[in-house]
Amino acid sequence: MNALISASSYRSDFSTPGYQNAKSLEVIGDKTLLEHQVDSLLKNGIDQIFVVLPKGSEEATRFLQNKRGVHSIFLSKPLGTGGAIALVPLDEDLLFVPGNLFFEVDLPSMLRFHQEREALLTCLSRPEPHPEKKDVLTLKDNGRGFIILPKETTGARDFFYSNLIPTDFAILSPDLLCTFDPDDPWPLDFHKETFEPTLAVEGLYSYFSPEYASEITNAETLAKVTRDLKAGIPAQKCLKNPQKAFFLDRDGTINVFGDFVVRPDMLHLIPGAAEAIKKINDAGYLAICVTNQPVVARGECTPQEMANILANLEMLLGKEGAYLDAIYYCPHFPKEFPGSDKRFTKECRCRKPGTGLIEEAAKAFNIDLSSSWFIGDTCRDVKTGQNAGTHTALVLEGDPNPGKRYGEAVPEKTYRNLKEAIDDILG
């Protein structure tokens, strides 16, 4: 696979228009953003890297000459963010890298995903704080992108949606690249004229990953990326490396216990829960919800209604600046009731204290369970963590009778609520 870094945008600083410096020459730590990008691509085994730069930046980017397999393309006229794609080899998969993106991603896994699905375009997608302020991607069951919901403008979205933010960090197949004319490159907005049309013909797949990918758009995001790099968070979040996670129960741990949640409007966050999850996000840990929801098996809630409930949970957390990297729920119940949905009436490995869901998450995200935590409001949750080999913590402001089942399971630590637990564990 080849890569193209679209670094041809100009500006002098974040507040004043100008034409002196490219965004990619912003210094982060001891290297420019462009050096970080190139080094990350080389480390991932990219065959050839094409760096598209504005004419006049030759001297500032002379360091690229010492990089094997790296080619500089200096533009004498603007080609937008994507027009220079026509100037690179079009006969093999191409990774498009926005010039202002700092990333640390396991690219071989993303390429494998792309090729297995024979996608025209595969974009990196991830959860983010405040999804209501961003474009959100909606998926079909097969993982193909369906539509992009534009960020909220005049009012709130009046429907439920998952926190899935697409990026322009994307792999393009030769079948898509062949639409570019190398003899007649013309200015092109990558997002509007390549990304969105591919989405419209259902040739776009979403590669979901919690890995580090942050656009540097202002001084605030530059400062955050600089802090994160100093703390080692980008490398920590790369899925090539074992991950640390907080597995969180839902009812009584994240949302208020006692409400029999069978509709989205019945779910309410516990005060401080979003703040705790945001702290998990900022520390570079994964935040993963694992919950039993037998209301589906008992026919009290359909799978689609449950999807809306969980989407509402993501929306509520997102609006407070927090996000879950994944939600896993068990819809099963071993006994049949009048009105039960027989598809889900069965014994299973995923119902807590079974560890099926944790094992699924550990495989998907390369999680080191021995360095992770399970936090919930019942001894069932504690038993689940013990069975999976995680550390365990019990919170007391949820279920008033936490030991009614599996009371023999003793947690390593006990706290009043999730905020207190995360404040203590993360320091």
Structure characteristics:
427 residues; six-stranded parallel beta sheet; seven-stranded mixed beta sheet; alpha/beta; 21 strands
Summarize the structure.
This protein is an alpha/beta fold and 427 residues long. It is built from eleven helices and 21 strands. Helix 7 packs parallel to helix 11.
| Beta strand % | 15-25%
Number of strands: 21
Number of helices: 11
N→C terminal distance: 42 Å
User: Structural class given helices, strands, pairing?
Assistant: alpha/beta
The coarse silhouette is: elongated
What is the CA-atom radius of gyration, in angstroms?
Answer: 23 Å
- On the 0 to 100 scale, the average pLDDT is 92
Largest β sheet strand count, sense and barrel closure = 7 strands, mixed
Low confidence ranges: 10-21
Specify the helix fraction band.
25-40%
Strand order in the largest sheet: 7-6-1-8-13-10-14
Description of the molecule:
The protein is α/β, with parallel strands linked by helices and 427 residues long. It is 26% helix and 22% strand. It contains eleven helices and 21 strands. The strands form six sheets. The protein has a seven-stranded mixed beta sheet. It has a six-stranded parallel beta sheet with strand order 18-17-16-19-20-21. The chain has a two-stranded antiparallel ribbon with strand order 2-3. Strand 19, helix 10 (379-388) and strand 20 (391-395) form a beta-alpha-beta unit. The longest helix is centred in the C-terminal third of the chain and has 17 residues, at 303-319. Mean pLDDT is 92; it is low at 10-21.
